[in-house]
From TrEMBL, chains A, B:
<dbReference type="Pfam" id="PF02525">
    <property type="entry name" value="Flavodoxin_2"/>
</dbReference>
<dbReference type="GO" id="GO:0005829">
    <property type="term" value="C:cytosol"/>
</dbReference>
<dbReference type="InterPro" id="IPR051545">
    <property type="entry name" value="NAD(P)H_dehydrogenase_qn"/>
</dbReference>
<keyword id="KW-0560">Oxidoreductase</keyword>
<dbReference type="InterPro" id="IPR003680">
    <property type="entry name" value="Flavodoxin_fold"/>
</dbReference>
<dbReference type="GO" id="GO:0003955">
    <property type="term" value="F:NAD(P)H dehydrogenase (quinone) activity"/>
</dbReference>
<dbReference type="InterPro" id="IPR029039">
    <property type="entry name" value="Flavoprotein-like_sf"/>
</dbReference>
<comment type="similarity">
    <text>Belongs to the NAD(P)H dehydrogenase (quinone) family.</text>
</comment>
<protein>
    <submittedName>
        <fullName>NAD(P)H-dependent oxidoreductase</fullName>
    </submittedName>
</protein>
<feature type="domain" description="Flavodoxin-like fold">
    <location>
        <begin position="1"/>
        <end position="207"/>
    </location>
</feature>
<feature type="region of interest" description="Disordered">
    <location>
        <begin position="239"/>
        <end position="259"/>
    </location>
</feature>
Length: 259, 259
């Protein structure tokens, strides 16, 4: 497999960097090719703005989807974005390694997604009206997985936990990946990384390694398919909406955390 | 009231800018004082990195919460962050005006939250072990509200909609605001802003105005209180976890969108 690892932490000595290094080592040991984008090291531009479109279709007013689509069609996508898009095209699996900050992606990674998963590349409505999104998105046929750290304990991220259900917290991110066409694998979450001590961190590294060794046969998180929706973008009669974590089975709400 | 409006859109002619302007006009007409941070115009630094801590407690390794707390205690918080924190302290109500991008905050606004809602300021564990978070967070006594635009139709953001339930999409953002101490008011969502035409946009502006005219008596979204959790950070026996949108009542799943 070709694996593309997107890394977002400012500190080279961080535990996130240790997780990245373990992932790269294990994946290469398994015979996969690995490419890494270290967003902080690259000083990746985090913010979409007028500078992304030096030759705009509409100089009077920036409409981002319009300009992204025009740039994609004309081959004038900004060089730093186009380079990341080429890595995505070449990848079978994309791994995002990051710390969960305020229940979301670090800004540099959120901005990477906004700029790289552009309209025209990752999703679009074609001139004939066809929608390229979700399982028909620009990155279909590829798999994506989040690998994240958080300061809180696993108990606090249960459905009845103080920070709320981790599956629910990650749902908008997973849905954004699905929107771009990815099959989304269950995440690897390393909890309580600041308080777990050396043993806790060693266990977290081993858990990530274990997941990566079996990743070729991992089952993606189920999403509704396009044909389950009607023309008003609602589920057809008789189809109940999925909820985050539902795929974990009926014991989900009462599951016991592993740490 | 003192109102602080945080604005995140790169285009001065955008509909988000029109919503911002209407909000400012209405709030001032109602006798409130309004301060605006236009993050793009300010070129607000979106990314936490080593540059935020020029005189670090630990030069060998950046641990962000540690450095944020030390900077806060010593009064050395970066000037651009401290200025925003002063606006928050002075505010009774904070409004965030932004486009929903990939089911989340624009990167520049996510980064503003990461840098400004810092450890030591918005949340912390005191030396005596007291947790300042959620209803005991640094910004307690203040209210916050999201006002956002999205390209999709309201039908697509219902619980059975193609993009998923808007309450669920916004839940991590709302919980981050709650974590910092805010009472969180229900959001104002302007749907289908690109396709709604002039009438749709006029209606959206009027809806925002209507909400703002009644905002002093608005009821916040309910969250679990700190005393509902046990020492393992889980809800005490017999307390069922709240779900996003639950406060809308039992008709929630079958509600008919207004547009």
């Amino acid at each position: 497999m070709n694996v593309f690892l997107v890394f977002a932490h400012p500190e080279p000595k961080s535990f996130n960097a240790a997780l990245r290094d373990r992932a790269v080592d294990v994946l290469r040991e398994c015979g996969h090719a690995v490419v890494v984008s270290d967003l902080y090291e690259m000083k990746f531009k985090a913010v979409i703005d007028h500078d992304d479109f030096p030759d705009p279709l509409n100089p009077a007013m920036l409409q981002i989807p319009l300009e992204q689509e025009a740039a994609h069609a004309r081959g004038t996508t900004a060089a730093d974005i186009a380079a990341e898009q080429r890595k995505l095209i070449a990848a079978d699996l994309v791994i995002f390694q990051f710390p969960l900050w305020l229940y979301g992606l670090p800004a540099i990674l959120k901005g990477w997604c906004e700029r790289v998963f552009s309209s025209g590349f990752a999703h679009e409505t074609t001139p004939s009206g066809e929608r390229r999104w979700f399982e028909n998105g620009g990155l279909k046929g590829r798999r994506a997985m989040l690998s994240l750290t958080c300061a809180g304990a696993e108990t606090a991220f249960q459905p009845d936990g103080r920070h709320g259900d981790m599956d629910r917290i990650l749902w908008p991110i997973h849905n954004a990946l699905r929107y771009a066409g990815f099959d989304v694998l269950p995440p690897v979450v390393s909890y309580a990384v600041l308080r777990g001590g050396e043993l806790g961190r060693a266990n977290a590294l081993d858990r990530l390694e274990g997941r990566l060794r079996g990743i070729e046969t991992d089952t993606p998180i189920p999403f509704h398919s396009l044909d389950e929706y009607d023309d008003a973008h609602r589920l057809k009669a008789g189809i109940a909406p999925r909820t985050p974590g539902q795929h974990r089975g009926p014991g989900y709400l009462s599951r016991t955390p592993s740490s």
